[in-house]
Each structure stands twice: as C-alpha cells, then as structure tokens.
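Here comes a specimen:
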Amino acid sequence: MDLDDLGRIMDNASKSAFRLETLPQYLVPQEEEEFTAWREGRPWPPRTPDNSEWLAELKGIVAGGIRWYRVHILDYPLSEYSRFELHGYLENQAAGEEIHIADRAEHPELEDMHGDFWLIDDEVAVRMVYDDEGHFLRPEPIDDGKPYLTIRDRKS
C-alpha cells in the first residue's frame, strides 16, 4: 500500500474518517517550510478554504455529511512540533474537522497507545508507520478493523 492507495480509500469514505495521532512530531515534507517559518517566528499566511486546496476539499467533505475527526494524544511538556500542530488545528477546525486532544498523563489508560492509524467508515483500518523521529514511512492496511474500533471508542 502507498499514499495513493490510502487516498483512494479516503476518497471512497461514505460516513466517516477518523485519525488517531500519538507522536510528538510528524516530520513530513508538506509541512517543512511552514514549520520552519513558525519556528523562526516568521509570519505565514493563514490557510483557509479559499487559499488551500486541502482545506477546500475538507470543507466539501464535511459539508457532504462525512464526519472527519481525530484524537491526538499529547505528552507534556509539548514538543515544538506539537505546539505548531495545535496552532494549525485551528484552520482544520474552521473547515469542519473535529479535533480532540487527550493528555496521556491525565489518562493512564492511554499509556499503551503509541500507534497511529486511520479508520474509514468504521471498517477500513490503516496503520500509519513512522520512524523514531516522526518521518513517515508507509501506510499498512489492517485485515481486521475491529480492534481499532475498540481503541477509537475507548473511554477514560
């Protein structure tokens, strides 16, 4: 599986797309320039559905009745990247994404949750594989999505 395959799965979502994020940083090329500007305190134009192809697409997905949401489990102190990402979540929320934050220290039952994944339409699970520094390596399809439903629905 590659990112194009994952994109096709997500394009076929009919009711929901859920993402669990557990890492302190995600070093992906698409954010490198913006993250560097943020770290250096340089202004960066705000992204909106009017100037961002992704946010326009996200807004359309949500307007079409598909729930797009994520939970990010954070560890404190926050990494520099986590602070950057929290700021960026505001733009995604404005386009319709639901974003939930969990503090691992406040919820000991989350201690063992360190694997990122997508869950599409409560059926299709895809594990997102990163190296130890947060560089994306590959998506991996999961044969049985039921354990990922259990993780997603875990209550504190």
Summary: The beta strands are 16-21, 67-74, 98-103, 116-120, 124-130, 136-142. The longest strand covers residues 67-74. The first helix runs from residue 3 to 11.
